[in-house]
């Protein structure tokens, strides 16, 4: 059954997955159960029966990833300032026209955005804030002594 699958095949499988997730979520009352795990089992059973193949699963993954990327790009586009980028940059720089070099340097040098690769959002917090955060969320009696994965040098420079 290994064949090329169309977008409509992938969409049909996605709709089936969404229906199964809804059924599993409604049926499961055990907080340790996961509808995503149940869906994975359902998909593997369909694969074992020959109802779907690896190509269908790959088409599903591609379809879902493409849709998520398109949605993210749309949200990003909606959040950008209006106009073309050249006019946006020129408008921002116009505020610095005639300013002394030290003022221009101070305005342009600081990082405005950064990328944080973290397994959990608390890792991205400053150490002082991170030290105060766990106690708000921890269950009574649970240790909140979480060591940073950052070195002390990195922590000191990140503050």
Task: Report what the structure shows.
The protein has a domain at 7-79. The radius of gyration is 25 Å and the shape is elongated. The protein has helices spanning 7-27, 35-48, 54-79, 85-94, 101-108, 127-132, 134-137, 152-158. The longest helix is centred in the middle third of the chain and has 26 residues, at 54-79. Helices cover 60% and strands 0% of the residues. The model is unreliable at 148-159 (pLDDT under 50). With 159 residues, it is mostly helical.
Oligomer: single chain
- Structural class computed from helices and strand pairing: mainly alpha
Q: Which blocks of ≥5 consecutive residues have pLDDT under 50?
A: 148-159
- The number of distinct helices, counting runs of at least 4 residues, comes to 8
- Helix content, binned percent: 55-70%
* Rg from alpha-carbon coordinates: 25 Å
What is the string of SSEs from the N terminus onward? HHHHHHHH
* Sheet with the most strands, sense and barrel status: none
The fraction of residues in strands falls at under 5%
Mean pLDDT: 75
* Record field, number of beta strands: 0
Overall, the morphology is elongated
Measured distance between first and last alpha carbons: 56 Å
Summarize the structure.
The protein is mainly alpha-helical.
What's the helix and strand layout?
Elements: H1 7-27, H2 35-48, H3 54-79, H4 85-94, H5 101-108, H6 127-132, H7 134-137, H8 152-158
List keywords for this structure.
mainly alpha; 60% helix; single chain; disordered C terminus; 8 helices; elongated; 159 residues
